[in-house]
């Protein structure tokens, strides 16, 4: 880049960091969150759960492997988690102007500019992260030199973000024997891939769609952005689905929504969990799994109904990492078994879900 425009990150407490622009030359505002993963920016940037958020990478070197080519598989972009960038802005320390990877189609900066997303490099993101960890998550603005500073800070959690990113219509993928309804509150494509590769037909429905009248074998509740309490229509459809008894599996926002439908309350964490190395213990065992995470809210399992029990618990801070029904085939996890990016250690949970569907179908015969 020949012109080196400066760019500022302004936090709601007035703290300001100044670096340089390498994305779209525009201003933005949203919730500033940090991720400590070392890789996975194409996946994170296209994860709809980051909607409304300005993403900070603590790992300093970003952009060195470019951005994957836009190849399709199952009618979905193969190397991305949705069709576009969902973060409102990106803040990093050291941008790699040179990139190299067998599958790279363009640079990170080019991709951000095409998507109209501002990005700042040259910021001490570890210092910034220490501030967020001390004071808790904050709203922020990115202002690139020459762009007009937004008048106010935008708090995305006050809106129903799932409604903004969900599919507008029912879409079907694959033609496997098992019919799985995917309630799309902002789903990552790898959830669809993990179901298709296990022989499912995936019927992706909007966040507020009453799917209970459909012919289906199991329900997948997707991840998604924002405060779970906003998804009231999804919660009432989940309650209806629970009465039908067919297997249910929830991921991240899906875990929060299933938990609320099961009587629990949710709360906002001080600064969330966003990384590829969060340890979770499977309750009642000595088995710990390393998980990929991206969430700002959590479930208070003390408030769960009597038919439910904790499934996983976070070994760093003791917060809930999942719940399960004591008798019926309903379970959900706060982490991401579909990974993308991050470790694939918990992908076995998709196999468990498929087994639940087979067992349930068998018991009906
Ligand atoms: N990845 C997700 O599904 C995130 C869930 C929810 N929006 C949270 O921040 O906690």
UniProtKB/TrEMBL annotation:
- Keywords of this entry: Amino-acid biosynthesis, Arginine biosynthesis, ATP-binding, Glutamine amidotransferase, Ligase, Nucleotide-binding, Pyrimidine biosynthesis
Binding partners and assembly: Composed of two chains; the small (or glutamine) chain promotes the hydrolysis of glutamine to ammonia, which is used by the large (or ammonia) chain to synthesize carbamoyl phosphate. Tetramer of heterodimers (alpha,beta)4.
According to UniProt, the name of this protein is Carbamoyl phosphate synthase small chain
**Binding site residues for L-glutamine:** 49, 224, 226, 253, 256, 294, 296-297
* Residue numbers spanned by region CPSase: 1-177
Per the UniProt record, the lineage of the source organism begins with:
Bacteria, Pseudomonadati, Bacteroidota, Bacteroidia, Bacteroidales
**Gene Ontology biological process terms, A to Z:** 'de novo' pyrimidine nucleobase biosynthetic process; 'de novo' UMP biosynthetic process; glutamine metabolic process; L-arginine biosynthetic process
Q: Species name for this entry?
A: Alistipes indistinctus YIT 12060
Q: What EC identifiers does the entry list?
A: 6.3.5.5
Domain Carbamoyl-phosphate synthase small subunit N-terminal residue range list: 5-143
A matching Pfam family: CPSase_sm_chain
Family membership noted in the UniProt record: Belongs to the CarA family.
What GO molecular function annotation could you give as one example from this UniProt entry? carbamoyl-phosphate synthase (glutamine-hydrolyzing) activity
């Amino acid at each position: 880049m020949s012109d080196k425009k400066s760019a500022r990150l302004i936090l709601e407490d007035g703290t300001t960091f100044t670096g340089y622009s390498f994305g779209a030359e525009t201003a933005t505002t949203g919730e500033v969150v940090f991720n400590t993963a070392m890789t996975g920016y194409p996946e994170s940037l296209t994860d709809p759960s980051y909607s409304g958020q300005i993403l900070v990478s603590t790992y300093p070197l970003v952009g060195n492997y470019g951005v994957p080519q836009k190849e399709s598989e199952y009618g979905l972009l193969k190397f991305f988690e949705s069709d576009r960038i969902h973060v409102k802005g990106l803040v990093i320390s050291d941008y790699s102007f040179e990139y190299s990877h067998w599958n790279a189609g363009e640079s990170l900066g080019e991709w951000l500019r095409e998507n109209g997303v501002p990005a700042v490099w040259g910021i001490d993101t570890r210092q910034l992260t220490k501030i967020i960890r001390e004071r808790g998550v904050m709203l922020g603005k990115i202002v690139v030199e020459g762009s007009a500073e937004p008048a106010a800070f935008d708090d995305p959690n006050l809106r129903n973000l799932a409604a903004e990113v969900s599919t507008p219509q029912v879409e079907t993928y694959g033609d496997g024997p098992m019919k799985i309804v995917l309630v799309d509150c902002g789903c990552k494509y790898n959830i669809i891939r993990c179901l298709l590769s296990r022989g499912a037909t995936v019927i992706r429905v909007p966040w507020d769609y009453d799917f209970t009248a459909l012919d289906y074998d199991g329900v997948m509740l997707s991840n998604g952005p924002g405060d779970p309490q906003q998804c009231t229509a999804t919660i009432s459809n989940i309650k209806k689905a629970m009465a039908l008894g067919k297997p249910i599996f929830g991921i991240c926002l899906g875990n929060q929504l299933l938990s609320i439908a099961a009587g629990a309350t949710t709360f906002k964490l001080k600064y969330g969990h966003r990384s590829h190395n969060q340890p979770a213990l499977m309750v009642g065992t000595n088995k710990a799994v390393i998980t990929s995470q991206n969430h700002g809210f959590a479930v208070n399992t003390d408030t769960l109904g009597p038919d439910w029990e904790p499934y996983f618990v976070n070994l760093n801070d003791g917060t809930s990492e999942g719940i399960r029904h004591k008798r019926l085939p309903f379970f959900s996890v706060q982490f991401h078994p579909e990974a993308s990016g991050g470790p694939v250690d918990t992908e076995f949970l998709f196999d468990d879900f498929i087994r639940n569907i087979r067992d349930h179908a068998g018991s009906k015969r």
